[in-house]
């Protein structure tokens, strides 16, 4: 067995090296015989280009913006020689290349990526490179060189990615040993493996936070336009430290005097008259600026950081920390759910379930868009997952407590007294830990100060604690126990929830005159939010797009493009590549849940998972009605669909057992349908991961890498010359 594993590893290593050295370096091998000759140092230049004193090109007429050079056909590649780059030069330049007026190939390059400067232009004759940029653009091109020899490039990052793909495929293949090892959260080995996975992620998070802490304030303004200030949470923290509820930002007199500042026409006129600053996506109310985003992250993170360091915490650092916590708690939640519905599930199935949750929760999007928009979502994902994890673990395991209880003496007596005070039971229902249900309630109620939509997660508590709720009703009706003792747990839940909610409601009332007014309708954005309502005709299409908007593929990197949402009337829409089930198909298994009954030790529908499915569907409609179509809003419900899909996914994979979790090395006992299902699920998961990674490079999305980090985009783009 070891020899076979070693042989497979060696074959995989050789295949990776072969793909790297030959496949990804085909341009090098094809251009070994390139002449590298060029007719002249300078190129023939169209009348639509002008050379600046810095050596760059300025587009004067886009229809005549081209460079020409002779090519002898010894190489299918030409090289762009970048010029000196100034601040206003384009960092991504779109071109068309053709030989002797043949088929013009679209391409682009960045002067920040040396390898992207090689463009594919096969043929012999006159090579024309047309610049596809608007008039007035500064193009950092010195010259185009024909007959170029592409250098050899051994890329460690590319090798690491291929190795990761091979490792994932090896872990998820139907014959993998991981299908024969059951999950055991008490196992020292499995905990060590978990630490080996978590520690590098934690270190990467710490490194990312460190790089974000040194970032400059994100404030942008152009004459005649809005002011884009991305430090909303920093301003909230500063205002609270000063004892203010409004932000310490200046309000122009003309804006204060405007009859209806929420009207887009009024704001357009103010901007045309040079009035500034008018802050984009800030709430403006009674002559003051506010933020309509949840205040709790500012209190927990931004205020302490300001008090300790004297500096403003960047939203990017906060998002990284909160998303690390969210992914950690989501993973713990999945493990607890699996332990409840399908004990002894294999590690391979557990890893697939964890990946499904991370994909379904929209974690990739939130980690990518590390600005203030993502802060409340990341905070609420962390709080909701932690709260549910605590609730699901609130039931007392008396046998375990007896085994771990301290013996005699003062310490033992104190422990037993604390345990007795913490323990609550109604009727014959399982006993609960008051501490855990109180902390869970506190976490879920805290969503009121982050992303209030997540407060509806509390509805899952009805399903989780249904036996106790029935027991309370029976006890109160039969009067078999004192009322105060019977209602201790509900009182703990309510009191714990009121701890964050009451001050947050007071904060809302102090700002906008109502405890339930968060200021959403006062934001200055694409339309007048005081009068905006999503058109009734758009609600069903938006809800459908949230789930089913199809992926759109292209023939050039990154091969995935934005999918347009076709709506009958105007509504807010954020560019997105597809719906939840297009990006995470396994989440769609949740719709099978109502028809799945537990049998023969196999998982089936439960009250909790059915409630999660119903809540997810309700939130899809809620977001369609109140928010429009936004990629980030899928975080509201995506994780709930993934949670509801867990029993179906495990059942599809033949878990637990299927003749594979008995510690045996034999795989012949696994039915062929289970093996095929595992193979299909693994393939779908690999495709979903690929879509998630490629979506980071999608052109046209918010904060697109092609403009935000052109060096990274084009370094990867150049892998596929």
TrEMBL record:
Protein keywords: Membrane, Transferase, Transmembrane, Transmembrane helix
Regions that span the bilayer: 154-172, 192-210, 289-305, 317-335, 347-368, 375-396, 437-466, 487-507, 576-596, 608-631, 637-654, 675-698
An MF annotation (GO) of this entry: transferase activity
Protein name in UniProt: PMT family glycosyltransferase
């Amino acid at each position: 067995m070891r020899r076979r594993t070693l042989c497979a590893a060696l074959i995989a290593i050789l295949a990776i090296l072969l793909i790297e050295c030959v496949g990804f370096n085909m341009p090098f091998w094809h251009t070994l015989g390139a002449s590298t000759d060029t007719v002249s140092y300078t190129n023939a230049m169209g009348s639509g280009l002008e050379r600046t004193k810095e050596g760059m090109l300025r587009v004067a007429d886009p229809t005549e913006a081209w460079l020409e050079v002779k090519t002898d056909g010894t190489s299918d590649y030409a090289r762009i020689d970048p010029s000196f780059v100034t601040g206003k030069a384009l960092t991504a330049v779109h071109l068309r290349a053709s030989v002797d007026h043949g088929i013009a190939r679209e391409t682009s390059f960045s002067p920040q990526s040396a390898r992207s400067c090689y463009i594919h232009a096969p043929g012999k004759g006159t090579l024309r490179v047309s610049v596809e940029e608007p008039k007035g653009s500064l193009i950092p091109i010195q010259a185009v060189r024909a007959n170029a020899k592409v250098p050899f490039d051994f890329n460690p990052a590319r090798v690491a990615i291929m190795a990761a793909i091979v490792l994932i495929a090896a872990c998820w293949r139907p014959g993998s040993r991981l299908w024969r090892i059951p999950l055991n959260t008490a196992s020292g080995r499995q905990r060590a493996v978990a630490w080996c996975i978590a520690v590098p992620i934690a270190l990467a998070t710490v490194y990312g936070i460190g790089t974000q802490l040194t970032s400059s304030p994100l404030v942008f303004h152009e004459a005649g336009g809005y002011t884009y200030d991305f430090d909303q949470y920093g301003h909230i923290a500063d205002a609270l430290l000063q004892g203010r509820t409004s932000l310490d930002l200046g309000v122009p007199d003309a804006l204060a005097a405007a009859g209806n500042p929420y009207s887009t026409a009024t704001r357009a006129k103010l901007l045309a008259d040079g009035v500034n600053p008018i802050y984009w996506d800030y709430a403006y109310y009674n002559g003051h600026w506010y933020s309509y985003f949840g205040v709790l992250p500012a209190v927990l993170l931004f205020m302490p950081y300001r008090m300790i360091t004297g500096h403003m915490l960047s939203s990017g650092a906060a998002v990284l920390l909160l998303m690390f916590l969210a992914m950690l708690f989501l993973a713990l939640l999945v493990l607890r759910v699996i332990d409840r519905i399908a004990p002894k599930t294999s590690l391979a199935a557990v890893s697939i379930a964890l990946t499904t949750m991370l994909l379904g929760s929209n974690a990739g999007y939130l980690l990518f868009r590390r600005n203030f928009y993502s802060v409340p979502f990341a905070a609420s994902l962390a709080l909701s997952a932690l709260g549910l994890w605590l609730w699901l673990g609130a039931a007392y395991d008396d046998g375990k407590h007896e085994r771990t209880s301290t013996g005699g003496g003062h310490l033992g007596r104190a422990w037993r007294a604390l345990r007795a005070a913490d323990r609550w039971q109604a009727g014959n229902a399982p006993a609960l830990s008051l501490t855990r249900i109180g902390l869970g309630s506190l976490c879920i109620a805290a969503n009121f100060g982050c992303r209030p939509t997540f407060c509806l997660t509390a509805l899952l508590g009805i399903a989780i604690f249904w036996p106790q709720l029935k027991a309370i009703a029976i006890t109160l009706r039969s009067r078999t126990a004192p009322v105060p003792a019977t209602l201790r747990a509900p009182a703990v839940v309510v009191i714990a929830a009121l701890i964050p909610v009451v001050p947050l409601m007071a904060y809302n009332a102090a700002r906008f005159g109502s405890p339930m007014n968060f200021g959403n309708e006062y934001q200055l954005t694409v339309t007048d939010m005081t009068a905006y309502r999503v058109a009734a005709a758009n609600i069903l299409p938006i809800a459908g797009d949230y789930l089913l908007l199809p992926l759109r593929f292209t023939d050039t990197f990154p091969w995935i493009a934005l999918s347009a949402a076709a709506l009958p009337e105007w509504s807010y829409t954020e560019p997105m590549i597809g719906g939840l089930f297009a990006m995470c198909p396994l989440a769609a298994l949740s719709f099978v849940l109502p028809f799945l009954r537990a049998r023969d030790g196999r998982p089936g529908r439960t009250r909790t998972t059915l409630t999660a499915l119903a809540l997810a569907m309700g939130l899809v409609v809620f977001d369609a009605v109140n928010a429009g179509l936004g990629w980030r809003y899928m975080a509201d419900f995506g994780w709930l669909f993934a949670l509801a899909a867990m029993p179906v996914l495990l059942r599809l994979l033949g878990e637990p057992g299927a003749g594979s979790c008995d510690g045996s090395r034999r795989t012949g006992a696994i039915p062929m349908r289970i093996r095929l299902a595992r193979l299909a699920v693994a393939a779908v998961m690999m495709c979903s991961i690929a879509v998630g990674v490629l979506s980071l490079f999608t052109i046209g999305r918010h904060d697109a890498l092609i403009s935000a980090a052109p060096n990274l985009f084009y370094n990867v783009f150049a892998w596929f010359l």
